[in-house]
Design goal:
Layout lengths: L1 H4 L5 H10 L5 H11 L12 E7 L14 E3 L15 E4 L16 E4 L1 H5 L4 E7 L4 E3 L8 E4 L1 E7 L34 H4 L5
Antiparallel strand pairs: 1-5, 2-3, 3-8, 4-7, 5-8, 6-7
Length: 198
């Protein structure tokens, strides 16, 4: 309704819903929407969630867990994960607690601006695929979530819009595409082979 009221495009909502369907946990999908209703939790054009994460001054996570199976990301000897801008952080889904009744527990955490600012010395912005959300703990008034993967997209410089943002651009979903249209016949002049192409 906020998108309609503000004249925003519907595609981010549709993309968000499509990504939710890829989440293997029905409960995580149900828990996720109340989390998004907190202010400053926008969606991107592709339906990703942008959330805030509190980190130490050196960009390592505040809490560490040496038992976490890290698939992508740099850790220190205490299990703290480095959250530098541009890094993709991923852990085994089984290394993330899926029980919403557990407040402080294992997994990657992100949350609302108020939650993140009260947690770390610095705040970074993270982009989360709804498919990677594992649980939304019921403590802290649903102001945080646990997920198994996110991408650090920036350092906090000010609150984000509360519904939708194009600030971080559109992802290249086909990295081998050079932007030129080519015909299946191999011709570089796609339009010559397809006169109806607009």
């Amino acid at each position: 309704m906020a998108f309609l009221r503000d004249g925003l495009p519907y595609q981010p909502i549709a993309n968000y819903m499509a990504r939710c369907r890829k989440n293997q946990s029905a409960r995580a999908i149900t828990e996720l929407y109340p989390f998004l209703e907190h202010r400053n939790m926008p969606l991107t054009e592709e339906g990703f969630i942008i959330a805030y994460k509190g980190v130490q001054s050196n960009f390592f996570s505040v809490m560490g867990n040496t038992s976490t199976v890290v698939l992508q990301g740099q850790t220190d000897e205490g299990g703290h994960i480095l959250n530098e801008v541009g890094k993709v952080i991923e852990i085994e889904r089984s290394s993330c607690d899926d029980d919403f009744r557990n407040g402080c527990s294992f997994g990657l955490h992100a949350g609302s601006l108020a939650y993140a600012k009260g947690w770390g010395q610095r705040v970074v912005l993270v982009e989360i695929d709804p498919a990677d959300v594992v649980s939304v703990p019921e403590d802290c008034n649903c102001q945080k979530l646990r997920c198994c993967k996110y991408r650090v997209i920036g350092e906090y410089t000010g609150p984000m819009p509360d519904t939708y943002t194009t600030e971080f651009g559109t992802r290249d979903t086909n990295p081998t595409d050079d932007g030129e249209d080519t015909c299946d016949c191999g011709s570089d002049d796609f339009q010559d082979c397809n006169p109806d192409y607009d």
